[in-house]
Specification:
Number of strands of chain B: 5
CATH superfamily of chain B: Periplasmic binding protein-like II
Strand content of chain A: over 45%
CATH class of chain B: Alpha Beta
Order of helices and strands of chain B: HEHEHHEHEE
CATH topology of chain A: Porin
Strand content of chain B: 15-25%
Number of strands of chain A: 16
Oligomer: heterodimer
CATH architecture of chain A: Beta Barrel
Radius of gyration of chain A: 24 Å
Shape of chain A: globular
Distance between the termini of chain B: 27 Å
Helix content of chain A: under 10%
Structural class of chain B: alpha/beta
Helix content of chain B: 25-40%
Number of domains of chain A: 1
CATH architecture of chain B: 3-Layer(aba) Sandwich
CATH superfamily of chain A: Porin
Shape of chain B: globular
Structural class of chain A: mainly beta
Number of helices of chain A: 2
Largest sheet of chain B: 5 strands, mixed
Largest interface: A-B, 27 and 20 residues
Order of helices and strands of chain A: HEEEEEHEEEEEEEEEEE
CATH topology of chain B: D-Maltodextrin-Binding Protein, domain 2
Radius of gyration of chain B: 17 Å
CATH class of chain A: Mainly Beta
Chain lengths: ~375, ~140
């Protein structure tokens, strides 16, 4: 056997050895799956009598999942929003999740990496369009209305370490989740430093405890973090030398949902308060939604939903923002992969305050969507 | 003779009793599962058997009487179960069941897949699988 043949054989055996060693760890094949939702929306501003219509590829999520062994699994979730086009500067492309999970039975799971934390019932699944009957989600979870309501103030968007599980307790089961992540003081200007990192030493800490009893689920959630979101308001305070840096922000949430026969019901409440401890300054926000649905057929759900947002800013004068949005919709599962949705929402936006800050808008939304799992 | 005929006709007039067997691979370390256990297994809340072998769920694609009896017993409709499995899959928490085209394929799949659990008509059960629960339903 000549030298070249010997070398080739050695390389081949080395390669096979590496492949065999991975095979012995019992790895599963890489799983690739995802979903997308396309929609059409008709919008009418009743006050200005201006209408618009639009199609969009509302959302696409692509998952890569690897079950490393019986205890460890990893997942990556890429998200593409609103007809994303880098050329046309439309929409967004995000790394939504990238985590590894250790599982030791249902009682203890530990996720490490970029993830969506547990808060109330909807936060973890707010972007999972095939699971939700809505096209327009409850407003604290609907990023399309960022011009009216900042979603990131109401719910935590990211965490990096989360422990969670289910603990049986006689006739009930207790759910728990506890997590840590960045406070939202994230640098977004690469010119002055590494973007996407928290510029403070503060942390987001939060969690949820809940109960499961058959198809009834209920829980309480809370988060604490320190934010620079109020920075800049200090210039509006007459006679104040306070600098609103790293102000504590506390969120409290309540959630409940159940399915009984053909009936479906879900509700949530979120309260956000800033502990700014400054005279003549007070900022707090509240959100509520309630949905009642009825399964007309096993694969056809009709629902009524009511969204309410209240934001209160006291800067010497008081400024209130109220958003009320009753909505009605249907969701039809054509099969395991395709869901058709239709929804009508009427939004009333009222802002009371001094002078030019007063605002009143009435908006009609009629939207249809198709959601596909692949 | 007349009495025998009468008894025979009486038996025919009684409601028939459909039965569904919950079956597992022979290596699964359980002898029986109750309704609560089956719910926890089929909703994915429990993912491993006691011997650390992953649970492999096997479902049937066609909607037939066997499937209806099984999910009625669990208290959840097939579409509700699909919603639960879809949520778990999209959250990276678990895989949806393997879907078989027939009860014969169900038996074949369960008997050849370590950790597998499924359900078939009791009349189709053979020695290749283990029975861990029997569900009765009276039909008329």
């Amino acid at each position: 056997m000549n030298r070249r043949s010997t070398t080739t054989l050695c390389i081949l055996f080395l390669f096979l050895g590496i492949r065999l060693s991975f095979a012995q760890e019992g790895e599963q094949p890489l799983k690739i799956f995802g979903y997308f939702q396309g929609n059409f929306t008709y919008q009418l501003d009743q006050v200005s009598d201006v209408a618009s219509t639009s199609f969009s590829a509302q959302q696409l999520n692509l998952f890569l999942q690897k079950d490393i062994n019986t205890n460890w699994a990893a997942l990556v979730d890429f998200e593409v929003l609103n007809s994303f086009s880098s050329y046309r500067r439309w929409g967004a492309f995000n790394l939504e999740e990238a985590w590894v999970r250790y599982r030791n039975g249902r009682g203890f799971n530990l996720k490490l990496g970029l993830q969506i934390p547990t808060f109330n019932n909807l936060n973890e699944i707010k972007n999972k369009t095939p699971i939700l009957p809505y096209v327009i989600r409850p407003l604290a979870y609907e990023t399309s209305f960022n011009e009216f309501i900042a979603v990131e103030e109401y719910v935590p968007s990211r965490a990096y370490v989360q422990a969670y599980g289910i603990v049986p307790a006689k006739a009930l089961k207790l759910e728990y989740a506890a997590y840590v992540g960045n406070s939202p003081n994230i640098r977004s200007q690469p010119a002055i430093g590494q973007s996407g990192v928290d510029t403070t030493t503060a942390f987001l800490v939060g969690g949820r405890v809940g109960i499961l009893a058959g198809d009834l689920k209920a829980g309480v959630s809370a988060t604490h973090e320190r934010v620079n979101a109020l920075r800049g308001i200090d210039v509006l305070l007459i006679g104040s030398n306070e600098k609103l840096e790293e102000v504590p922000r506390i969120r409290v949430g309540l959630d409940a949902s159940f399915i009984a026969g053909h009936m479906y019901f879900a509700t949530e409440f979120i309260y956000v308060v800033y502990k700014e401890n400054v005279e003549n300054l007070d900022v707090n926000k509240g959100f509520f939604y309630g949905t009642g649905g009825y399964f007309l057929k096993e694969n056809l759900l009709a629902y009524l939903s009511y969204f309410y947002v209240r934001e209160n800013y006291t800067l010497g004068d008081e400024i209130d923002l109220d958003i009320v949005a009753p909505t009605v919709g249907v969701a039809y599962n054509l099969n395991d992969r395709i869901t058709f949705k239709g929804q009508y929402a009427f939004g009333m936006i009222t802002q009371n305050g001094p002078g030019d800050l007063r605002l009143k808008q009435e908006l009609h939304y009629l939207t249809t969507a198709v959601s596909v799992v692949f | 003779m007349r009495l025998a005929t009468t008894l025979f006709l009486l038996l025919l007039s009684l409601p028939a009793q459909a039965q569904v067997s919950v079956i597992t691979h022979k290596s699964v370390p359980v002898t029986s599962l109750d309704k609560e256990d089956l719910l926890e297994v089929f909703t994915g809340e429990i993912q491993f058997w006691d011997n650390k072998v992953p649970i492999v769920l096997v479902d049937m694609k066609p909607n037939n009487e066997t499937k209806e009896i099984f999910y009625t017993f669990l208290g959840k409709s097939p579409s509700r179960m699909k919603a639960i499995w879809l949520k778990r899959m999209l959250s990276g928490e678990g895989d949806p069941p393997i879907a078989t085209e027939s009860e014969e394929e169900m038996i074949s799949r369960v008997s050849s897949t370590p950790g597998a659990i499924g359900f078939v008509s009791r009349s189709l059960v053979n020695d290749s699988v283990k029975v861990v629960a029997v569900i009765h339903k009276r039909t008329s």
